[in-house]
Amino acid sequence: MSENLGMVSKITQKRISELLKQDKRIDGRGLNDYRELKVEAGLIERAAGSALVTLGKTKVMVGVKIETGTPYPDTPDNGVLTVNVELVPLASPKFEPGPPKEDAIELARVVDRGIRESQALDLKKLCIVSGKKVFIIFVDIYALDFDGNLFDASTLASIAALKNAKMKDYVIKKDGELEYKANDISLPLQNYPVAISTAKIDDKLVVDPSLGEEIAADAAITVAIGKKGNICAIQKRKVGTFSVDEIIQIINLSKQKAKEIGAMFLKG
To answer: Which class for 34: exposed (0-12), middle (13-18), buried (19 or more C-beta within 10 A)?
Structure first.
């Protein structure tokens, strides 16, 4: 996310840096510790699926909508996944109404890439008539409170909402139209990617950076890890650099944290 130095004082940023020299964080966490994490699913009655993730003071709501439409020309046998982000102005003074800004576009792309590259959704099972009609899955992300690390919160909320989503079972008639049944079915989920973000402040690496840590960071990186421990996507932010050893350390830590979070919130 882009910087806004007015939101966190330079005194606070200096304090963050000084504490990290002693392997301490301003909120009392260890360098590898997440803030308190909570996932609530099925809160939006009219959505096909929904989830609210609370990560410290950061809150993200995701709603899933399912419609039918035409596939992309280059993937005629695949359903369509669309991720949208709205950074609600009430969530932060830095968020403004209007068309999506760079921050929202980047967040949508990072979440989309983690879901898409992990093949979390079996898009082929969402094809109705090849080249003509498929299911379109809309994942709408709303940042409600912003205190850092929207990437991890948004990815987790998106997967939890997709996992919660239900649609009417159906049969395809000869004319390509759908005949819906009375029972509901789940979306064809086959993977549960978890995004883990790490910030580098001076020479220290911290997991799940708060807003102040994001602003103080020289560089940040988000790694999406699939349920089998494979890397699905990586996104680096800010102008600082990581050494090879730091990247290896980040990847190993991301795998560990993703396994823990997945076991807590995405199993069953």
So the answer is: middle
Domain that holds residue 120: 5-265
The β-bridge partners of 167 are 185
Task: Tell me the backbone φ, ψ of residue 211, rounded to 5 degrees.
Answer: -60, -45
Mean pLDDT computed over every residue of the chain: 94
Here the CATH number for the domain that contains residue 254 is: 3.30.230.70
Q: How confident is the model at residue 182 (pLDDT cuts 50, 70, 90)?
A: very high
What is the DSSP secondary structure assignment for residue 147, as one 8-state letter?
A: S
Cβ distance 25 to 199 under 8 Å?
no
pLDDT 10s digits, 198-211: 999 999 999 999 99
β-bridge pairing 219-225 and 231-237: antiparallel
More confident residue, 23 or 94: 23
CB 82 within 8 A of CB 135: no
Q: Which residues contact 200 (CB under 8 A, 6 or more apart)?
A: 206, 217, 218, 219, 220, 240, 242, 246
Count of beta carbons in the 10 Å neighbourhood of residue 158? 28
